[in-house]
Amino acid sequence: MKNAETLIAGIEFKVRKLIGQTGILQEENAKLRDEVNTLRSEIEILESIITEQHEKLKTLKLAKSLNKEEKRTDVKLKINELVREIDHCIGLLNK
């Protein structure tokens, strides 16, 4: 009988120990879930920032390309002006 009581007491002790460990693990699991949720929301925020930055980059690239086109237009106008002046000088020389 004593042997059975000892076995039962040992089993009860192990079950209590397992229940305590289960509680600790459940708390740790809850903390980890909260951390995962926090990190997921941070990832979403960072992804939206990345998307915004990509849009800004596209806008800047477009603005720079338009600025280059304006410079090209200015250069073309200068060339046309110089050609007119040259034509005028040639006309004066031919008189």
Please provide a written account of the structure:
The structure is a single chain. With 95 residues, the protein is mainly α. The longest helix has 93 residues, at 2-94. The protein is rod-shaped and about 140 Å long. The protein has one helix at 2-94. 98% of the residues lie in helices and 0% in strands. 0% of the residues are buried. The N and C termini lie far apart (139 Å).
Question: Can you tag this structure with a few keywords?
Answer:
95 residues, mainly alpha, 1 helix, 98% helix, 0% strand
The rounded distance between the terminal residues' Cα atoms is 139 Å
Shape: rod-shaped
The biggest beta sheet is recorded as: none
Number of helices: 1
Roughly how much helix do the residues carry, as a percent range?
over 70%
Q: Which stretches are poorly predicted, pLDDT < 50 over at least 5 residues?
A: none
Report the average pLDDT across residues. Answer: 88
Broad structural category? mainly alpha
Strand residue content: under 5%
Please provide the count of β strands. 0
From N to C, what is the helix and strand string?
H
